[in-house]
Design a protein that fits this description.
Helix content: over 70%
Mean pLDDT: 78
Largest sheet: none
Strand content: under 5%
Distance between the termini: 104 Å
Length: 283
């Protein structure tokens, strides 16, 4: 194809569509670098229209949410690169804040676990400092997230305590973080099960989440985040329990009420039997 033909608007549009669709398919196959490369090429041949920007933001959000469960670091890379293409995107930025928060808490837990193994104060300080930086990035992107704000305070408190050698991080703190994360996972699963109508399983998961948070709180009662998670999980379970009981009562009520058709049928049978016996008596 000649340079002249390649510059025609309709050819450019076809090329742009092909680049976008191929990038989308590659992203779904976990080939994020290749997908981003095609979208950068798309940006070079045509300034991204609002439609393309919206679509790239949409598929990126979906993929980043999936990656976040496996690797917050991979999700952060994908979102940052996508934001360079699409510019401002509030939903992507909120997801990026969540990814930094998750990564920060992972680094904090890893730092504490490393202290249990070798008691290397400098190593754990570096780990907590890295966690703080991630949590600060998260807080700057989404200042209204109270959980991140509290986690940031907690991480800074750990760093201050270690620097001043006023406390020794022990197994209780590490285990409380693990139990807290497990409680969050169970509560998230409960919400998904509830959406799919699996209310009994949702209730079981929520009940287990409460137990996890209580155990975590017993190990680390100074952690206000864990204390708050107990309250959140109980509120969620109480709402579920109330709605489930109402549903049960409605079902029982519906079973106890005879339908008009059923009532009419019963009356018809009675009338027939009366006529039959009257007829026999007359004869």
């Amino acid at each position: 194809m000649s340079i002249f033909e390649r510059s025609r608007p309709e050819v450019i549009n076809i090329h742009a569509t092909a680049l976008f669709e191929k990038g989308k398919n590659l992203l779904e196959s976990d080939m994020t670098d290749e997908a981003l490369g095609l979208w950068k090429e798309l940006q070079r041949i045509e300034k991204l229209s609002p439609e393309y920007s919206a679509e790239i933001g949409k598929v990126t959000r979906s993929k980043a949410a999936d990656l976040l469960q496996r690797s917050p670091e991979a999700a952060i890379t994908l979102i940052n690169e996508s934001l360079k293409l699409v510019g401002s995107d509030k939903e992507l930025e909120d997801l990026l804040a969540l990814a930094y928060s998750r990564q920060g808490m992972q680094k904090l837990e890893n730092a504490i676990r490393s202290f249990e193994k070798d008691n290397n104060i400098e190593k754990v300080k570096r780990g907590i400092d890295a966690a703080i930086k991630d949590l600060e990035r998260s807080a700057s992107l989404n200042p209204s997230d109270s959980n991140t704000t509290e986690n940031l305070k907690m991480a800074k408190g750990y760093l201050s305590a270690i620097s001043g050698s006023t406390i020794q991080i022990n197994n209780n703190i590490s285990e409380s973080l693990r139990l807290n994360n497990e409680g969050i996972r169970l509560l998230n699963e409960a919400q998904e099960l509830s959406k799919r109508g699996q209310s009994e399983l949702a209730g079981n998961n929520a009940s287990q989440a409460i137990e996890m948070f209580i155990q975590a709180n017993n190990l680390n009662p100074a952690d206000k985040i864990i204390e708050k998670n107990i309250s959140i999980a109980r509120d969620w379970y109480n709402i579920y329990d109330r709605e489930n009981n109402q549903k049960f009562r409605r079902q029982n009520s519906a079973k106890g009420k005879p339908t008009y058709a059923g009532t009419f049928f019963v009356l018809a049978i009675i009338a027939y039997l009366l006529l039959y016996f009257l007829d026999k008596k007359i004869i």
